[in-house]
Design goal:
Elements (H helix, E strand, L loop, with lengths): L4 E3 H12 L3 H13 L5 E2 L10 H14 L20 E3 H21 L15 H13 L10 H14 L8 H19 L1
Antiparallel strand pairs: 1-3, 2-3
Helix pairs in contact: 1-2, 2-3, 5-6, 5-7
Length: about 190
């Protein structure tokens, strides 16, 4: 992989986080742009990726599906994981995205579903919400496989206290509960 190339999936997550646009909207516009060649795509060995009509159709079809989603995790596995094998020049991607946002950000956001303001971190479920926020902030691409449970728990607890979130009485148990719920949600979506 070239120094200035990153996989498409990672760039979509970064764009979602940086511009605070719903993940489904970022996926939609990015997949549509990839389908029509708005920025060059590369294979892991660095050669230019030429899209067949079938792949372009797949991108357009999945762009419509992507727009209906509002969480990062639903597309980290299965068919969507194929985007990790597609590399994009970072400079070209960010130039395209910034140009796109200059002309269409209002349109993209206007089409976004109305979301009620985030609940404050107090009351029922505050600790689980805080743990979910910590996991999403610490590992936007998913928790690394080689990370031990003890290190994961320590990082989550540190994030919770640094960000003034409620700390569970038994953090290990609360984190395990949240992780089990996330795994269950992922299975239901696949």
């Amino acid at each position: 992989m070239s120094f200035n190339q990153t996989d498409l999936q990672t760039l979509i997550v970064r764009a979602h986080a940086q511009h605070q646009i719903p993940i489904g909207k970022v996926m939609r516009v990015t997949l549509q742009a990839a389908a029509v060649g708005k920025f060059p795509l590369y294979t892991p060995d660095g050669s230019t990726l030429t899209l067949s009509k079938a792949v372009r159709d797949w991108l357009v079809r999945h762009a419509a599906i992507a727009e209906q989603q509002n969480k990062v995790r639903w597309w980290m596995k299965g068919t969507w994981a194929a985007l990790r094998a597609v590399l994009v020049g970072e400079v070209e991607f960010w130039q395209w995205l910034n140009d796109e946002l200059d002309t269409t950000k209002a349109v993209i956001l206007a089409a976004a579903p109305t979301v009620s303001p985030a609940k404050t971190n107090s009351g029922r479920g505050a600790k689980s919400r805080g743990i979910n926020e910590a996991i999403d902030a610490l590992w936007p691409g998913g928790i690394p496989n080689g990370l031990s449970g003890k290190d994961r728990t320590r990082k989550i607890i540190t994030w919770l206290s640094d960000n003034k979130r409620s700390l569970p009485r038994n953090p290990e148990r609360a984190i395990q509960r949240v992780l089990a719920a996330r795994r269950g949600a992922t299975k239901r979506l696949s």
